[in-house]
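Quick one before lunch.
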Amino acid sequence: MGNVIVITGGGRGIGAATARLAAERDYAVCVNYRHHQMAAQAVVDAITQVGARAIAVAADVAVEQDVIHLFETVDQRLGTVTALVNNAGILEQQMRVEHMDAARLHRVLATNVVGSFLCAREAVKRMSTKHGGNGGAIVNVSSVAARLGSPGEYVDYAASKGAIDTLTLGLAKEVAEAGIRVNAVRPGFIDTEIHASGGEPHRLERIKAAVPMQRGGQAIEVARAVLWLLSTEASYTTGTLIDVAGGK
Ligand code: NAP
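Model of the NAP complex:
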């Protein structure tokens, strides 16, 4: 059986770049999406046109039944998952903490934290040698925001990524004996549509001078780190956080 990868939020941005690179590296690819079906289907079409296997599956990672359905669909259509990229993530309008309401906090934490936990749970159930699986690898997409804090923009988002770092450290130790490696990438400022969600589509232009390399990153530069962490090249690497942030 070949490698089967689930990439949450795989239709756009970093997830889409990861999906395309995974296909080049001989994974059968599940492109999960929440709203943008056409974007996810375009990634699937690009992959299948070069002869690789891919499917698009709708699921809101914050909804437990959706996540269960996502992994059951992968079982049936691609085979047992061997790699998970917990990439789906959101941020909301830039504001200070003193203006954030509970509904916003719940939304951000539900997708970024609860969603990553639920997907990790379903992957571990299938990968763990203690449950009869053959092992696997998980990469969580965190952010340098976890250590910078994102003051004045989205401290809630930054805190959610702090939780992802801790999930990575804890889960890596929990499942190391079960043949599963768990790592994270922490991107810096990457050129995707996520910045528009914060109300500033051209955010990178404003802040790139604060990056030692004097530029924002591209999604493919993050995808390459993700695919390395998933590969056997990283066979002794677990519980590690890799910054992909131009020195920021
Ligand atoms: P993006 O272009 O806005 O894409 C986000 C993706 O997540 C979309 O495919 C979206 O699906 C999906 N998504 C959002 N909520 C979801 C949910 N509840 N269930 C399933 N899918 C959901 O963002 P990006 O910049 O590529 O970000 C990808 C990851 O990298 C995120 O975790 C983000 O926090 C992290 N990151 C990004 C940067 C950056 O500068 N761009 C920096 C550090 C970390 P739909 O297309 O269906 O909406």
